[in-house]
Design a protein that fits this description.
two-stranded parallel sheet, 2 strands, 52% helix
Length: 81
């Protein structure tokens, strides 16, 4: 009798786990709207390599971000009086 009760409880946990995982995966697929983000870099350098790798592999899109990488001027204006 104890084996039957333990088997039923175990089966209930497995079913609950599977349904929870399925529900989480469905929520990820439903949220297709991406948040637009602009990321500015001051120069092309190896410092930004991880960002370009993540962008090319689609990590940002997987996390709901539409990232646009732009190059900005890194030149500071020096005021001379």
């Amino acid at each position: 009798m104890k084996k039957i009760i333990i088997s039923i409880i175990l089966l209930a946990f497995v079913i609950t786990f599977v349904l929870t995982i399925k529900n989480v995966n469905n929520k990820k697929d439903d949220s297709k709207e991406l948040t637009k983000v602009k990321v500015a870099e001051v120069t092309h350098s190896l410092f930004y390599t991880p960002m370009y790798i993540a962008h090319s592999l689609g990590y940002f899109e997987d996390n709901g971000l539409d990232v646009e990488i732009i190059l900005t001027s890194g030149v500071n204006k020096i005021l001379i009086h």
